[in-house]
Design goal:
Residues 26-160 form the PHR domain. This protein is mainly β. The protein is 5% helix and 50% strand.
C-alpha cells in the first residue's frame, strides 16, 4: 500500500474550532478529487482531536452520479468507529472495509464527520499531488458545508494501490 500526501512535508498544524464559541461539537469534512490513472483506494488519514481521548467518527467515499436527476451522490463506502487517541499529533489511518477501484477522471468525494471538539488541521494543501505517474487533482466541494478546503483542513494522506487500466475497466464495468 502506498501513501499520497496532500500537505507539504513540513507540518504546521492549526486547531480547528468555531470562532464564536471556541468549541465545535460536530465537524464535517469533504474533499473532491479526480485521478489521471485508475487505482485502488484503501482509505485516508485524519488529524486527531486536540483534547479528547476518544472520538466518534463516520467516514467514507462518494461518487457523483451525473445520470441521476438532481446530481445525487452515491455512497461507495460508509464506515463508523470510535477512535482512541493518546494525545499526540499523529495521523490516524482510516481504512475502508474493502478497497475501492477509482476510475480515471471521475469525480469522487472523501467525507469525514467527527463528533467532538477541536481537531488539528493541515495548512498549505496541494491542489495536485503526485506519487510517480499517479496524479490526484483536488477541489473543494460539497455545497459549501465542509471544514476542509484546498488550502487547509483534514485528509492529509490517501492510502492506495496501483492497478492496471484493463483490470480497472473489467472491475468497474460490472457496476
Amino acid at each position: 500500500m502506498e501513501t499520497l500526501r496532500r500537505f507539504p512535508k513540513k507540518k504546521c498544524l492549526l486547531p480547528c474550532f468555531d470562532v464564536k464559541t471556541g468549541i465545535k461539537t460536530k465537524q464535517t469534512h469533504f474533499l473532491a478529487f479526480k485521478s489521471n490513472h485508475p487505482f485502488k483506494i484503501h482509505g485516508f488519514g485524519m488529524y486527531g482531536p486536540m483534547t479528547e481521548k476518544e472520538l466518534n467518527i463516520q467516514y467514507g467515499l462518494l461518487i457523483d452520479d451525473f445520470c441521476n436527476p438532481g446530481n445525487k451522490k452515491i455512497i461507495l463506502s460508509n464506515n463508523s468507529k470510535l477512535i482512541q487517541f493518546d494525545g499526540h499529533r499523529k495521523i490516524v489511518r482510516l481504512l475502508f472495509h474493502e478497497p475501492i477501484i477509482v476510475r480515471r477522471y471521475e469525480s469522487y468525494i472523501l467525507f469525514l464527520n467527527t463528533d467532538g471538539y477541536k481537531t488539528y488541521r493541515g495548512v498549505n494543501g496541494l491542489s495536485n499531488a503526485h506519487v510517480g505517474n499517479l496524479k490526484l487533482m483536488f477541489s473543494p466541494d460539497f455545497d459549501g458545508i465542509s471544514e476542509t478546503t484546498l488550502a487547509e483542513g483534514n485528509f492529509p494522506e490517501i492510502y492506495f494501490d496501483r492497478v492496471c487500466a484493463e483490470k480497472a475497466e473489467e472491475t468497474t464495468s460490472s457496476l
